[in-house]
Design brief:
Helix 3 links the parallel strand 3 and strand 4. It is globular and about 50 Å long. By secondary structure, the protein is of the alpha/beta class. Helix 2 packs parallel to helix 3 and helix 7 crosses helix 10. It has a six-stranded parallel beta sheet with strand order 2-1-3-4-5-6, sandwiched between helices.
Length: 216
């Protein structure tokens, strides 16, 4: 099999270093970049050619789910393996809906990592063993018409999602503007658009929404 260029995206440097050492055991697997958060990852994808991204869900600035969706829009051929501690079915469904090619629990990585990478590189979907049955059941119910397929109800742009996350973290418009290198007036404009799109009227409602969607 041809060589595989990999980017690691996780906010824990020690985990990235450990993964890099493990992956170096296979000659055709080459780590070409490391990202500490979702925004860092998006910039890296634009600058570095890669075949596979191994990404966590919980990252600062832009969480993994939004990053996966954005990457698949830009680079549909890049494979994405989610490596996470989250066992909840909702996270799994969100990741698959966003375009992830695989979902692996960190606690199972020692025995499933290489098989996950191999399966994904062959164009197949990999779901960590202890969650695969749950996802299969969901798909079966969808086929029978018991539940509707998961579709994104959010109409927020990538920038609006960034702003929403920071609002929910308690940052002021001035702080958000400084972090994103735009004006406070633009942040207020984004805030107004977010509230209109989500049909919310108070900042407290935005925070509740962000928590419910897993932005924090």
């Amino acid at each position: 099999m041809n060589s595989c260029r990999i980017i690691l995206a996780d906010d824990h440097a020690l985990l990235r270093q450990g993964l890099k050492r493990i992956l170096s055991e296979i000659p055709e697997l080459q780590v070409v970049g490391e990202a500490r958060d979702g925004l860092d990852l998006l910039q890296m994808v634009n600058a570095v050619s890669c075949d596979l991204i191994i990404i966590d869900i919980s990252m600062p600035n832009l969480r993994g789910i939004e990053a996966i969706h954005e990457i698949k829009m830009r680079c549909p051929d890049v494979k994405i393996l989610v490596l996470t501690m989250h066992k909840e079915g909702e996270y799994l469904r969100q990741a698959v809906s966003a375009g992830a090619d695989g979902y692996l629990l960190k606690e199972d990585a020692d025995v499933e990592l290489f098989s996950a990478i191999e399966k994904i590189r062959k164009g197949k979907i990999f779901i960590t063993q202890r969650l695969s049955e749950e996802l299969t059941d969901d798909w079966a119910r969808i086929k029978r018409g018991d539940v509707k397929p998961l579709t994104s109800q959010e109409k927020l742009t990538l920038r609006e999602k960034e702003v929403l996350k920071m609002i929910a973290e308690g940052k002021s418009s001035k702080e958000i503007a400084s972090a994103l290198f735009i004006s406070a007036r633009t942040i207020d404009h984004h805030r107004a658009n977010i509230m209109e799109k989500l049909q919310l009227k108070k900042t407290a409602d935005l925070v509740k929404y962000a928590i419910g969607k897993g932005y924090l």
